Recover the amino acids of this structure.
């Protein structure tokens, strides 16, 4: 591989790594800044995914010119794949539990179309599980 | 019915039944992951052995832990899948910037929980849509309304009625992309039928 191409790849890799790190930084700022659980989920779970993917691409580009033999682009692809598949599951469970146990700030919600459904479910079963804060 | 046969044939039959439950496409997918993990795609002497071993392990896993089949199955449309990937990445980058913007602008950020009814009955499409929604920043699936396939989505940064409507349309567009890329013919037909009804009522 020519030197010029290696240099270009290096720079692209550096940019990817930097952008990925920035996105992860934004995620951590969002964690502190947002007031309630559901909003925090957005930053905790998301820019991070794109950030991680960018970091992986950056590492992959750095790996292309040299053979390390320890891990390769294939390994990185597996890391990315499983991250994309598993993050939604964790996010969904946390969001669901948070909602059902009343850990949300209703003043920040413009519309809440789930509330009616859960309420009618409550009436049907005769229980009162949701909105513990009320 | 006569008495149950002796133990040995019974075992063979049970094994055969379990082998019948092995789903070849999923086994192939597991083999690909195996190859990626062991760097099997770089050609060397043991590559073929890795391939055979990987497939063997996948089949063994599915024999020991049998799972119900993926319900209605799916159909892979390469061109539409490419469009889905492009759409997905554009959405992801766009919403990442949006969330970044919302993070650094002062003042409270409003959000909403909206109900979006899926237009196809396929469970697989529902799962794919919710995974994609969860990976794209700005939306989290809070609850899935089971019998009627409704997704309840928490959407960040929707300030008013127009915002929630936009979020709903975005979700439908994502669903459409996914169904067109991976849906069976029945799913696509249902989607198109629902779309014509939707435009008439709107």
């Amino acid at each position: 591989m020519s030197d010029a191409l290696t240099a270009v790849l290096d720079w692209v890799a550096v940019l990817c790594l930097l952008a990925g790190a920035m996105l992860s930084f934004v995620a951590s700022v969002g964690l502190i800044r947002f007031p309630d659980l559901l909003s925090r989920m957005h930053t905790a779970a998301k820019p991070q995914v794109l950030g991680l993917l960018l970091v992986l691409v950056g590492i992959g580009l750095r790996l292309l010119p040299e053979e390390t033999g320890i891990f390769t682009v294939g390994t990185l692809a597996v890391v990315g794949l499983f991250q994309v598949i598993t993050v939604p599951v964790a996010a969904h469970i946390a969001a669901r539990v948070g909602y059902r146990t009343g850990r949300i700030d209703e003043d920040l919600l413009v519309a809440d179309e789930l509330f009616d459904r859960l309420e009618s479910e409550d009436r049907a079963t005769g229980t009162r599980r949701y909105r513990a804060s009320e | 019915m006569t008495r149950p046969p002796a133990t040995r044939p019974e075992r063979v039959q049970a094994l055969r039944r379990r082998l019948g439950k092995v789903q070849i496409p999923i086994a192939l997918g597991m083999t690909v992951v195996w190859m990626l993990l062991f760097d099997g795609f770089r050609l060397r002497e043991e590559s073929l052995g890795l391939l055979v071993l990987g497939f063997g392990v996948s089949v063994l896993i599915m024999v020991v832990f049998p799972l119900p089949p993926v319900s209605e199955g799916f159909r892979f449309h390469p061109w539409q899948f490419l469009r889905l990937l492009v759409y997905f990445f554009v959405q992801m980058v766009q919403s990442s910037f949006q969330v970044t913007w919302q993070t650094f602008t002062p003042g409270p950020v409003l959000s909403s929980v909206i109900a979006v009814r899926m237009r196809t009955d396929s469970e697989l499409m529902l799962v794919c849509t919710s995974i994609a929604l969860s990976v794209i920043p700005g939306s989290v699936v809070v609850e899935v309304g089971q019998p009627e396939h409704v997704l309840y989505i928490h959407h960040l940064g929707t300030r008013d009625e127009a915002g929630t409507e936009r979020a709903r349309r975005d979700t439908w567009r994502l669903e459409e992309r996914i169904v067109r890329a991976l849906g069976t013919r029945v799913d696509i037909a249902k989607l198109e039928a629902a779309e014509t009804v939707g435009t008439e009522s709107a």
User: Anything to note?
Assistant: The CA atoms of residues 8 and 73 of chain B lie 35 Å apart. Chain B touches chain A through 47 residues (CB under 8 Å).
